[in-house]
Specification:
D-tyrosyl-trna(Tyr) Deacylase, Chain: A; Beta-lactamase; five-stranded antiparallel beta sheet; alpha/beta; five-stranded mixed beta sheet; 3 domains; 11 helices
Length: about 475
């Protein structure tokens, strides 16, 4: 039988191994900072030295940790850095905080015709999806504007950030997680495609409207299993020729992959807004004869339509449940918008001042973008766990905890430990980069006591360390 016919078999085998390793550790205590034997055994099996691991476990109602291993060591946290960003945002901005995207004009329309410019003024909304943008444009049509003879001015002045190289991190410039922050970030700057294997070809369905972008499908259908790296076999290239912009998608796609979604970010922010605006405005029955360009909104411009984002509590939930790097970067910059345009420097200063005011001194802390998608970011397990303990006593605690993936249930922990004793008993934020594996959050043991947990691995074999993290979670369930 193939693996697809028995989806639970690998999980059962892995859990059986973990339970065996866990039982080896029951005989030993974890007092004085020692790691449980089951965790040690899993690390040895993964060939990860204990010196490359930092672990801290502390009951939320206790003054001292139950386990503290390398807890003061500054380490790369990967995506668990989002805990700092999202907690700071909830506490400083409030769970009900929203972003407003405005549409303004510099002269009133006459008989449905706008002779002046239309301004789209962004505020840094982390979740301005295509359907939300459509709603904003729909407001303009309802208010009688049908023809725009001026230009569309995109106002991104709420953020002051340098343009990033999307391929600098991992040489995958079109992957959505590499999109940089933007005060008018629409649909995460991505295009969505649906791939469907047919009898002899791969059907490529462009789901995102994009006026002026030509799609050239050169995908080859292959046999065999659909591997976990199927996206790496799809090769997109953005080309410009006498016909305009062309997105060529080549490579191979296995028939056993079935129907799947592919999200790409091939366009610059300016081009993406232009192609999307033209397409949606045309679908709404409007006409546009001007250009799309970046600028600032004049003081005398009149607001004609506004779009309000979901509340911050919902934004934080999406950010943490699915480890959305782009949303985390937007949240990070939202903390640096005091006194003019938001900058990373202002955001860092604001977060560090907030930590000091809460009595959370973290001299080793280094924040680059607040998402964890960084080789520079550093924090110790002790600092991260103190943050979790502080959050537990904060009024925004319910919103933060509810945003974390539930073990065996949803988010990035949906497929982990589904049939174990810890399933449904822990809210854990995960992180993963090359040479980094991490987890942090809260877990409840079978007696109803809650623990704050942080587990950081920085080692070339870090990806093999998942079993050690799972072993710790199983150990906590039995404490």
């Amino acid at each position: 039988m193939t693996r697809s016919n028995h989806p639970n078999r690998p999980e059962k085998w892995r859990l059986a191994l973990l339970q065996f390793v866990f039982c080896l550790g029951l005989a030993s205590s974890a007092h004085s900072g020692g790691l449980p034997s089951g965790v040690v055994a899993a690390l040895r099996a993964a060939q990860i030295p204990e010196s490359a691991v930092a672990v801290i476990v502390q009951p939320v109602d206790a003054k001292a940790p139950l386990i503290a291993h390398n807890a003061q060591q500054a380490m790369n946290p990967a995506s668990v850095m989002k805990l700092l960003t999202t907690y700071a945002a909830l506490d400083l901005l409030g769970p009900a905080y929203t972003w407003k995207t405005g549409a303004l004009v510099d002269r009133p329309p006459t008989s449905g015709i706008l002779e002046g410019n239309l301004y789209l003024r962004g505020s840094g909304d982390p979740k301005l999806l295509i359907e939300h943008f459509w709603t904003l444009l729909r407001q303009l049509r309802v208010r009688g504007i049908r023809q725009i003879n001026g230009d569309l001015i995109v106002d991104r002045s709420a953020f002051s950030v340098t343009t990033i190289d999307p391929g600098a991190f991992d040489d995958k410039p079109m992957r959505p997680y590499n999109v940089g922050p933007d005060a008018l970030l629409i649909n995460f700057q991505t295009l969505r495609f649906t791939l469907q294997p047919d009898a002899q070809q791969v059907v490529l369905l462009p789901e995102t409207p994009s006026d002026g972008l030509h799609i050239d499908n050169k995908l080859q259908l292959t046999g065999g299993a659909c591997g976990g790296n199927w996206k790496d076999l799809v090769v997109p290239r953005l080309l410009a020729d006498n016909k305009g912009l062309r997105l060529e998608i080549s490579g191979s796609y296995a028939s056993q992959c079935g129907e799947r979604s592919l999200n790409l970010a091939p366009l610059t922010a300016d081009v993406q807004v232009a192609t999307l605006f033209r397409a949606l405005w045309k679908e709404l029955g409007g006409s546009f004869s001007g250009q799309v360009r970046t600028g600032t909104t004049p003081n005398n411009a009149r607001l004609v339509a506004v779009l309000e984002s979901p509340a911050l509590a919902e934004i934080v939930r999406d950010t943490n449940k699915f480890s959305n790097n782009v949303m985390a970067r937007q949240l990070f910059l939202a903390l640096g918008n005091e006194g003019g345009s938001a900058t990373p420097e202002k955001a860092r200063a604001h977060i560090k001042q907030w930590l000091l005011e809460r009595g959370l001194n973290m001299p080793e802390l280094e924040i680059e973008n607040g998402s964890g998608l960084s080789r520079r970011e550093r924090i110790s397990a002790n600092s991260l766990n103190r943050l979790l303990l502080d959050a537990w006593n904060n009024p925004v605690m319910p919103e933060l905890v509810a945003s974390l993936p539930i073990v065996g249930s949803d988010g990035t922990m949906k497929k982990r430990l589904r049939t174990s004793e810890i399933s449904g008993r822990a809210h854990i934020k995960t992180g993963s980069l090359d040479s980094v594996k991490s987890a942090a959050g809260y877990a409840i043991n079978t007696q109803g006591r809650r623990f704050a947990i942080t587990f950081l691995i920085n080692h070339q074999r870090a990806q093999a360390g998942q079993a050690a993290i799972d072993a710790l979670l199983l150990w906590i369930a039995q404490q």
